[in-house]
Amino acid sequence: MFDKLFSKLKGDKAEPEDNTSAEEKNRVAFTALLVEAARADEIYTDKEKGLIAKLVKQQFAIDDADALALREKAEAAQAEANDLYRFSSTVKNGLTPEEKIQLIEGMWQIILSDDARDPYEDMIVRRLCGLIYMSDHEAHEARRRVEQRQE
């Protein structure tokens, strides 16, 4: 740990450059936030994993294998993250307003899929909406649309 710190202070390149494309970062952030919604209640089911795969397949027009790989990459990224900021800043700057709405709708689909509500799930969506500058009205409408589709 200290070697890494001293290396940075001396100006050495301690870590390799991140050559990940902006599109890939956006995809991982989008998917990691879906994983965050699924894990918010501390129960991460196969049903939620399948729903995440379905959502990213639709969102990014990718096949099953790519959706699985993306979900696994996002799970690892989400597990390493300390907070939502890492992903929210990518989403805020990298996604269109329509894509942000699709993300929030996807999060609500996952949250509502288990018919059990956890207060932390609501808080995650509210915090994210604030971080990506989505209005309360837009967030509420996204949730309402998801609830109507599930009836």
From TrEMBL:
Q: Which residues form the Co-chaperone DjlA N-terminal domain?
A: 28-143
Instruction: Report the protein name in the record.
Output: TerB family tellurite resistance protein
Q: Where is this region: Disordered?
A: 1-23
Q: Which one Pfam family would you cite for this protein?
A: TerB
Per its UniProt record, what Gene3D superfamilies does this chain match? TerB-like
